[in-house]
Design goal:
Layout: E1 20-21, E2 24-26, H1 29-41, H2 74-78, E3 84-86, E4 89-91, H3 100-110, H4 118-124, H5 134-145, E5 150-153, H6 161-174, E6 179-184, E7 201-210, E8 215-220, E9 227-232, H7 233-239, E10 240-245, E11 247-250
Parallel strand pairs: 2-4
Antiparallel strand pairs: 1-2, 3-7, 5-11, 6-7, 6-10, 7-8, 8-9
Helix pairs in contact: 1-4, 3-4, 3-5, 6-7
Signal peptide: 1-21
Domain Peptidase C39-like: 87-222
Keywords: Signal
């Protein structure tokens, strides 16, 4: 299976320390939940000691697009989105090395009005070893999204900055929701000096944009270099996994 079809897992052991950034509230509750659930998760979910250079997760988690019901085409509705918009999020840092998908999912779900911890999501998604595949994550996300008449899907074309920005403008600017994006951690500009192996899978949150500047605002749950970042849509598209945005649409 080509490397470009692998999905994120997680990249470092973290402790969620309280911090505040403009427009963002950083929560420590999920770290406490993770500590309580960690003993029940068993050895497969145990965090590794943080080395001098952060250890990358093992590779090989297959990325498989999972469809969800579609409604009005996002291309049409994104045109009505404001020129810029930032969804208010509650930022979190992943409390285990392979919890980037559950953590990013927790942040996203809170913008749907669903408060569920990263520890609970990791358990429901059966996150273990290298991390979480889209096939594991999406049924769990959609179980929470369905009562809100929303659905997540993967596999959309985000191969250019323009295409990615269109998706973000719809989810953030029209729906006012944040969502999850699979990326390659080693290619993110804030990780250039971290020494990650090539194609280290990771998941981040996309929650804002500026159409005129062609930039996208993201939250990276890996604390060492994460938090809030603004990146050009073209660059973010280039470091994203193929079809790796968990696009949100209303259900019919």
């Amino acid at each position: 299976m080509p490397v470009s079809r692998w999905i994120a897992g997680g990249i470092a052991t973290l402790t969620a320390t309280a911090a505040v950034a403009t427009g963002i509230v950083v929560s420590t509750a999920d770290a406490r939940d993770g500590a309580r659930d960690g003993g029940r998760a068993g050895a497969a979910g145990a965090a590794q000691a943080l080395p001098t250079q952060p250890a990358a997760i093992p590779q090989g988690m297959p990325y498989e697009p999972v469809a969800a019901p579609r409604s009005q085409p996002a291309l049409q509705q994104a045109a009505a989105a404001p020129g810029s918009y930032t969804v208010k999020i509650t930022g979190q840092y992943q409390s285990k090395n392979n919890w980037c998908v559950p953590t990013s999912s927790s942040i996203s779900l809170r913008t749907l009005g669903v408060n569920v911890s990263q520890a609970t999501l990791a358990k429901k998604m059966k996150t273990a070893g290298p991390g979480t595949t889209a096939r594991q994550a999406l049924p769990v996300l959609n179980a929470y999204a369905k009562p809100k008449h929303l659905a997540y899907r993967t596999g959309d074309d985000i191969s250019t900055g323009t295409k990615l920005l269109t998706k973000v403008r719809y989810d953030a600017g029209v729906l006012h929701r944040a969502t999850v994006l699979g990326v390659w951690a080693d290619d993110l500009p804030w990780n250039t000096k971290q020494g990650f192996p090539n194609h280290t899978g990771h998941a981040i949150v996309v929650y804002g944009y500026n159409a005129s500047k062609k930039t996208i605002t993201v939250w990276d749950p890996w604390k060492a270099t994460g938090g809030k970042h603004t990146i050009s849509a073209a660059k973010l598209s280039a470091v994203s996994q193929k079809g790796g945005m968990f696009v949100i649409n209303p259900t019919l």
